[in-house]
Amino acid sequence: MRLFCFPFAGGGVSTYISWADSFPDDIELVIIQPPGRGSRLAEDPHDNMTSLIDELMRHADFITQQPYLLFGHSLGSRVAYELCYRLKQNEMPLPQYFIASGSRAPHVSKDKEMIHNLPKNEFIQALEKLNGTPKELLENRELMDLFMSLLRADFKIAETYLAQKCKMPFSILVLHGQDDIDIEEHQLSAWGELSDLGHHLVQLPGDHFFINQSRNEVIHQVSQRVGTALAASYSTL
């Protein structure tokens, strides 16, 4: 079984790479690395959901060739959902389980001010308030110039994409930071409108980036769902 992990806006493989030792040998961790970061730094980032999903769909046969789960944090949750939507349209196998972390439901509009098109200094200040971009990066003018296009592109997707509401044939686990004031209760509960099998909400200590602050608790929640999916998979053999 494979566990695919999708990064938040501006994020990459570094968030998940340390997770590899937390799962049994029969789980393969696959970390999505969109262009514009890490080993793909020289490539232009996607600034719209359609082109990002088009790229992922070129790997659809690999993604769906064996049982799998999807995990995404913040923007990553919505990217993962849109991938499911496209796979469903193409009548391809869907995940055994879906884990949405730190995100409003993708078909619910953002009710906060958009920041992706703010002037540079205001954009940097807005990133600082979100508490997810390393302070060392925010204070380094040269690095910020290097990553500015990536950050703006990711936040443009995060702030402008709105999904088609579609019921999926899998359960959804929703993880939420107890101190995350940017996501309203109705935006979280709306995930339940996207599953025929229901959803379950778990609150964890931390703000929007509780994925780092409560790393062990997040991994524990994911591991439980992986175990459930594995057991179900083995029972059908």
UniProtKB/TrEMBL annotation:
InterPro entries: AB_hydrolase_fold, TEII, Thioesterase. SUPFAM superfamilies: alpha/beta-Hydrolases. Gene3D superfamilies: alpha/beta hydrolase. Pfam families: Thioesterase. GO terms for biological process: lipid biosynthetic process. Residues 2-223 form the Thioesterase domain. Belongs to the thioesterase family. This is Predicted thioesterase involved in non-ribosomal peptide biosynthesis. It comes from Pseudoalteromonas tunicata D2.
